[in-house]
Design a protein that fits this description.
about 200 residues; globular; mainly beta; single chain
């Protein structure tokens, strides 16, 4: 009985320790008048954390649906493999002209088929295009750590499980810019960050 009590106490302590050792960053992104539609194309991210991070066990997906890439921007940890799925009734292609992604061209494939590519160069900003439908465009941003977020249509964002510390918070957008911020994250987190996008 004492053994099980010790195990239970250890589990409770571990859960408390996890909750104490991580925090949440949340806030809102806004933009100059007339540019609000570009807000969901933004990535808010911590530039560097002193730790080695591994890619997720489940590959993120970039879908091709309605003659669009979904999502428009996909942030990933370096070393991540992305699966590209065609959900349309027409043929689609995926390629990039960017050297940081080896200027890959995955070819052309029909509905419900999928092809993959691994992004192994930190800092790569790769545009995705379809040579069958030149109006299609998306972006992959390769980051050092998983502490990033894409805001919703109202500009709200949240980054979970951030270890306390001092960091540089950066912002990426394919059309607009925002100033980076030096932030200090405590156990209580940050809940009111304001980010303004401008041309």
């Amino acid at each position: 009985m004492r053994f099980y009590k010790k195990i239970l106490a250890l589990l409770i302590f571990s859960q408390v320790a996890v909750s104490i050792s991580s925090a949440q960053i949340s806030g809102k992104v806004d933009a100059d008048p007339g540019k609000e539609k570009y807000i969901p194309n933004t990535v808010v991210y911590i530039d560097h954390v002193d730790k080695v991070f591994h890619p997720p066990e489940v590959n993120p997906k970039m879908n091709q649906k309605g003659l669009k890439f979904i999502p428009h921007v996909l942030p990933v940890v370096v070393g991540t493999t992305i699966d590209f799925l065609n959900s349309d009734d027409v043929l689609h292609n995926v390629f990039t002209p960017d050297a940081c992604a080896n200027k890959f061209n995955l070819g052309t494939w029909p509905k419900n088929e999928m092809r993959s590519f691994t992004y192994d160069k930190l800092g790569c900003e790769s545009v995705l295009l379809c040579n069958v439908h030149p109006e299609m465009e998306a972006f992959v941003l390769v980051l050092q750590n998983p502490y990033f977020a894409v805001p919703d249509g109202s500009g709200n964002f949240r980054i979970d499980n951030v270890p306390p510390g001092r960091y540089t918070l950066k912002v990426w957008n394919d059309r607009l810019r925002a100033e980076e911020q030096e932030i200090s994250v405590s156990n209580s987190g940050i809940t009111d960050l304001q980010i303004h996008l401008e041309k």
